[in-house]
Amino acid sequence: MTTEEEMKAVSTYVTQLSGRVWGMALGMLTGFGLFAATLWLVIKGGENVGQHLELLSQYFPGYSVTFPGACFGLLWGFFVGYALGRAICLFYNFAARRA
To answer: What phi and psi values does residue 45 have, to the nearest 5 degrees?
Structure first.
């Protein structure tokens, strides 16, 4: 027989999220998303290519709407997504322990 304390301990352990996994997943999603969006605009070409996406260079040094800039965007997107994924898990796990 399991006691209520044991069930609560198992339930808390099962509801915990892995910060590393969420960070990697969200980092890859945002990094490759920014990389793909930048390359799409570079391939599309035209006058004033990616004027709105170019504004990210204010926050991400080295980023621009070019192929090398897309590589910097991949790195910056991964970094920001990883940090965001870790933060989401931190808050979720805190709330799961309190419930």
So the answer is: 65, -155
Residue 13 lies in a domain: no
Predicted TM-score (pTM) of this structure: 0.82
Return the closest-CA partner of residue 77 out of 20, 25, 33.
33
Which one, of 45, 41, 73, lies nearest residue 60 by Cα?
73
What digits encode the pLDDT tens for the residues 26-38? Answer: 999 999 999 999 9
Token output for 75:
């790195």
Range of the domain at 82: 18-98
**In angstroms, rounded to a whole number, what is the distance separating the alpha carbons of residues 21 and 3?**
31
